[in-house]
């Protein structure tokens, strides 16, 4: 079935190629109702209750499970590997990214992030002092996020078999029983909120790669990654509205990919208002210079929230009061149609379809 | 503190260099009572009970934790990255290894393995059909182990920035409340059991690397890796003896490293009987040929169990009845001294100190 196909950089980009790979290879073999949720974290229930639900809040327990008197606990469980290049960039580093990414994947499922694992693949010859800087940044970020690094692993490969270091983090959080964060709960009329400016991480990485030599001339503010753990802010948003339908952090593939994942195959459309979408001046300038679109750039400290219209103002207030959410905005709404599509009312008054990209324009962004 | 030191292959070997790296960098920064247990999995307790214990069965919950009515559940949580070379070897492949390794790390903590994550770092240009073979092997092994692959991630790096593919698996299991598997519970007089022959995995990898051209002449049986998920067998052993003191799978660094980790700094010694330690004819021949010692070779389908003398016979019977444990043996005992050391009564009647190796003789064994 896979013929003579080979892995391309685009297969790791979060766009259409990534989705094909996941569907054709991983889901094809591993298929089970938990994976089929396609969430940022899996929601698993501890043994005792063996029922399998395939709904939006699907849970699954192994058939071999023992009966457990404490059954019914919902855990969020997630993993991410980090291969960002370079290892240090304005506003962050691979260590801060590795903690934030996994914390955020737990948080957007409504979970309170608790425990993280960290696994390192190190290239022979890596400076120990560089590793120590990364590890120290991970510790700081873990403290900021209120999570405990509980277990770890280290492997070393020969010089030339990795690019400095790669980090994997997996995480566990507990989901409050009453919460159900799922795109299946989204309804026409719901509002779409974004917790701040788009594209900061993607442009910071480009700047760190020296692919933006002249951008200083276009803006006065430094281009910093937004890389940050969002668990605290998201818990506050949930405090303001228990009925939040859906959340996700728009990382690889950007906001465009996240919203297409939400809308595709569903009976509603998503309408965005370009004028409401916050983008920093420097990011706009860099995007114009390089022909990039902030809608497709990676973010590492932002969350998209879909909530009922009646609660949107309250959630927005809570986000804006948080230091990580002061540029939050209501950027769009859920509409009847065209179903399955994302589109945007542009500044000049037109309507533009926001499609899923074939692949991210920037490899190794996280 | 780290000066100009660089990462060496030996830092990933499981021996003394690995321990230094973990102590000086990872523990130094991440320090917390869970990591300090140095177990194959972390044992974490879900929120609700905020006490911190530093004993052998130490548990820790985050200070930010919410009160949870289902508190007191003990989870085992572990992670491992796999960089084995080559990707396919007699008796297994990187996929079978990645599932088995994490299942075994959960099982030796007394946990029932439940949920696994899988994260792939793929090298650009990797044949999709090769990836599919690996994924299919992971699925088969997960079914064999009774675990559910619940969440995953894929990254792609440029050609030359990885060696085919690397896999990380993290895992969650539930630990029965009454169990406490810890080297702190080991007492003088306890017996040491091994669930089968030593060194099979290490020698199979050497054979696959064509570093054993003549070994066929030395034995009639094929050299196969023992790579297998041990959750089922270990649960049966726990069924036969709830009082098992300690278990571990002797992977990188082999049995010698595992037992040194147990004995070092404690007030007992470990005495092994060479004549009782099962080693396959082909593995012996290969070791003689290459000047290797099976005590230091990696195993990927064996468990070392320390249990009270009175239960040793019953545990041995259970292990031997299991297909993965038919060569099990009682290989030694816990003695008063010399405290902190591992030594072996040799076949020729002498006594040999079994030290921790500086590093594994074979890099990228798992």
What does this structure look like?
- By secondary structure, the first copy, chain A, is α+β, with helices and mostly antiparallel strands.
- Chain A has 2 domains: 32-175, PurM-like, N-terminal domain (60s Ribosomal Protein L30, Chain: A); 183-353, Alpha-Beta Complex (Phosphoribosyl-aminoimidazole Synthetase, Chain A, domain 2).
- In chain A, 28% of the residues lie in helices and 22% in strands.
- Chain A contains 9 helices and 14 strands.
- Chain A has a 7-stranded mixed beta sheet with strand order 9-11-8-12-10-13-14, sandwiched between helices.
- In chain A, helix 3 runs parallel beside helix 4, helix 3 runs parallel beside helix 6 and helix 6 runs antiparallel to helix 9 (309-321).
- The first copy, chain A, starts with 15 loop residues before the first helix and ends in a 13-residue tail after the last strand.
- Chains A and B meet through helix 1, strand 2, strand 5, helix 4 and strand 6 of A and helix 1, strand 2, strand 5, helix 3 and strand 6 of B.
């Amino acid at each position: 079935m896979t013929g003579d196909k080979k892995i391309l950089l685009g297969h790791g980009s979060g766009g259409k190629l990534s989705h094909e790979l996941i569907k054709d290879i991983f889901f094809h073999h591993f298929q089970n109702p938990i994976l089929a949720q396609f969430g940022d974290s899996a929601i698993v229930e501890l043994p005792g209750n063996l029922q399998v639900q395939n709904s939006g809040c699907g849970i699954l327990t192994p058939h071999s499970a023992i009966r457990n008197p404490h059954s019914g606990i919902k855990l969020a469980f997630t993993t991410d590997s980090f291969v960002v290049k370079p290892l240090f960039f304005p506003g962050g580093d691979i260590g801060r990214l590795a903690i934030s990414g996994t914390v955020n994947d737990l948080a957007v499922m409504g979970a309170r992030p608790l425990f993280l694992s960290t696994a390192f693949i190190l290239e022979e010859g890596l400076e120990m002092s560089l590793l120590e800087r990364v590890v120290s940044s991970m510790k700081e970020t873990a403290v900021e996020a209120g999570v405990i690094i509980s277990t770890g692993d280290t492997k070393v490969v020969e010089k030339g078999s990795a690019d400095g270091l790669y980090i994997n983090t997996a995480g566990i959080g507990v989901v409050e029983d009453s919460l159900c964060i799922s795109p299946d709960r989204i309804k026409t009329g719901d509002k779409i909120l974004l917790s701040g400016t788009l594209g900061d991480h993607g442009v910071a990485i480009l700047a760190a790669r020296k692919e933006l030599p002249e951008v200083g001339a276009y803006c006065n503010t430094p281009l910093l990654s937004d890389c940050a753990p969002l668990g605290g802010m998201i818990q506050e948003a949930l405090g303001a509205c228990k009925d939040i339908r859906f959340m996700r952090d728009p990382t690889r593939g950007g906001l465009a990919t996240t919203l297409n994942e939400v809308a595709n195959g569903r009976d509603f459309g998503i309408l965005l208002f370009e004028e409401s979408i916050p983008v920093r001046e420097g990011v706009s300038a860099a995007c114009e210079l390089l022909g990039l679109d902030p809608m497709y750039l990676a973010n590492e400290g932002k969350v998209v929230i879909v909530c009922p219209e009646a609660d949107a103002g309250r959630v927005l207030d809570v986000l804006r009061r948080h230091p990580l959410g002061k540029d939050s905005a209501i950027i769009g709404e859920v509409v009847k149609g065209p179903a399955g599509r994302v589109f945007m009312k542009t500044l000049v008054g037109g309507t533009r379809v926001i499609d899923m990209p074939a692949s991210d324009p920037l490899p190794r962004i996280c």
